Amino acid sequence: MSGEYIAFLALALVALAGGIFMLNLTKVVHMVVALVFTFVSIAGVYVLLSAEFIAAVQVLIYSGAITIIMLFGIMLTRHQDDGQSTGSPLRKALALLATLAFGAAVYVGIRHLDFGEEAAALHEKNTEQIGVALYTNYVIPFELTSVLLLVALVGAIILAKKDDKEAGEK
């Protein structure tokens, strides 16, 4: 057992535990904190895979920005906490069985996966390789994605303003 393998197991356990806690906790803020643990541990797995750029993006965008947006959304909206149970024991048992079946299917799929031959220059200047590929071969899809995100942001603002006007009229 190498240190890399132990680190992977620890990060994988933290990611799984964060996901399970996120699904089973009742308070929304606690769910977001569990989600942060999941995001950060996934970033750690990216570091183990020598994908430092993706790990930094994971921490900055998901663990930082998305989590803050979720917390602001939670704080700025009205929600009722009725304290209802999350489901019957039969439903929980079926969900557990479905999760185990999905995990087994993923394990079998990965076990029989053939990646082909290993890339020669995989770990060399990976951030530079991403930048060159993004701004040479994929510049049009990159810009179209940025325009699409801008349109979605403007649409969300318009919908939020419309909801404020309707709430003020009632």
Automatic annotation (TrEMBL):
InterPro entries xref list: NADH_UbQ/plastoQ_OxRdtase_su6, Nuo/plastoQ_OxRdtase_6_NuoJ
GO molecular function terms noted in the UniProt entry: NADH dehydrogenase (ubiquinone) activity; quinone binding
Membrane association type: Multi-pass membrane protein
Gene3D superfamilies: NADH-ubiquinone/plastoquinone oxidoreductase chain 6, subunit NuoJ (1.20.120.1200)
Catalytic activity: a quinone + NADH + 5 H(+)(in) = a quinol + NAD(+) + 4 H(+)(out)
Entry-linked Pfam families: Oxidored_q3
Signal peptide feature range: none
Main location as per UniProt: membrane
EC number(s) from the headed UniProt entry: 7.1.1.-
Keyword hit for Cell wall biogenesis/degradation: no
Keywords: Cell membrane, Membrane, NAD, Quinone, Transmembrane, Transmembrane helix
GO terms under cellular component: plasma membrane
Membrane spanning residue stretches: 6-25, 32-49, 55-77, 89-110, 138-160
Localization per Swiss-Prot or TrEMBL: Cell membrane
Enzyme class: translocase
Keyword match Nucleotide-binding: no
Role, per record: NDH-1 shuttles electrons from NADH, via FMN and iron-sulfur (Fe-S) centers, to quinones in the respiratory chain. Couples the redox reaction to proton translocation (for every two electrons transferred, four hydrogen ions are translocated across the cytoplasmic membrane), and thus conserves the redox energy in a proton gradient.
Family from the record: Belongs to the complex I subunit 6 family.
Name the record gives this protein: NADH-quinone oxidoreductase subunit J
